[in-house]
Amino acid sequence: MAEDYLQTKGRIFDIQRYSIHDGYGIRTIVFLKGCFLRCRWCCNPESQHYDVETMTVQGKPKTIGRDVTVEEVMETVQKDRPYYRRTGGGLTLSGGEMLFQQEFARDLLRASKSAGISTAAESTAFSEYRAIEELLPYLDQYLLDIKHMDSAKHKRFTGVPNERILENARRIAKSGMTELSIRVPTIPTFNDSPEEIRAIAEFAGSLPNVARLHLLPYHRLGLDKYAGLGREYGLPDISPPDREHMLMLKKIAEAGSGLECRIGG
Ligand code: SF4
Known about the structure:
Bound molecules: iron/sulfur cluster
Largest sheet: 9 strands, mixed
Order of helices and strands: EEEEEHHEHEHEHHEHEHHE
Mean pLDDT: 97
Number of domains: 1
Distance between the termini: 38 Å
Helix content: 25-40%
């Protein structure tokens, strides 16, 4: 008999199989449409708006966004079950922001857990805590972005202040219900000074139950998409940080947090 929650509908723009990022082992990543933030460096600008959009890709129009049920997504996710078993992999929700479509995200995670497939999600935790709390029982790994400790600067570069995110990070950590990793997109001119990384690391180190800290180096892979969507890129004049700088920040992050720190996701 079909379970009701398998019929919950949501809007996605991609499903990527065989990924080795964003969680353990080999993963299937489902990209949800819609985000509360507008990060200037976002490499998935097509994820930000919930509306179905048209993006020009290699000179041709491409429709971004389609409506699917949990059951339909799970048909794809289930195909790689043997890989998950062998590698400890599973389903990862990405975006966009899963909390923008909280009911769909919750039911997708629930369906995955019911099928014996482990779950992870990349998220900014920018929502009411109640919405997060509802999906924690179905989430094995929370990959939580902390972008800056200064709320005014956070707002200038992402469109929203950081208080709610920091408070939710504390509450998720305290709940002990999921494996929590803190991820820091490391962006020149925004948060890549030793002081800025140290401040985030000290915050991460003050939380209970944090598995590790990730520094995600800035890259420019999504740049063409802005032209394809007819939008301006918010950080036109910066370059990716070099390896020496990232290694220096990693040392600072380890010292500041007392946590294992990795470069990359
Ligand atoms: S939170 Fe992620 S998806 Fe949303 S705007 Fe920022 S980088 Fe893009």
